[in-house]
Amino acid sequence: MITGRFTTASEAETRELAARLAQSLSAGAVVLLSGDLGTGKTVFVRGLAEGLGADADAVSSPTFVLVQEYRQGALPLVHVDLYRLPSVDLDDIGLDTNIAARGVLAVEWPERLVRSVAGAVTVSLMDAGGDLREVVIRRERRQRSLERGRSRDSG
What we know:
By secondary structure, the protein is of the alpha/beta class. Helices cover 19% and strands 29% of the residues.
């Protein structure tokens, strides 16, 4: 899996970076996307979709419906946007945990979560001026079991 600090100079480069990350993810992966409005979180999710073999152009910000599912790729992609919620638990938003456990869960605005998601891949996007974005990708050490909402050590 790719980790580190990257600079992208366009939406296409941000999507390409996300697609590379997606190709290294397995079923049950959780990707938490942080960044200010307009820094490219949804663009990054489009790249995840592309890397999983789904229609990237079908990806839109699910701000008003909270959850969008894209099932046509190698793994299902579940896209969650928590922007409009003050705080929330993933178990309380109507997330189909069976699909999320069989696919990749991408969460925008994870700061709104009341619990941390152990084992998640964290992606931080920052505006570096113009079309430039600084993207930091990190992996936590523990894995979360989405089927029951409990954390377990991956050790």
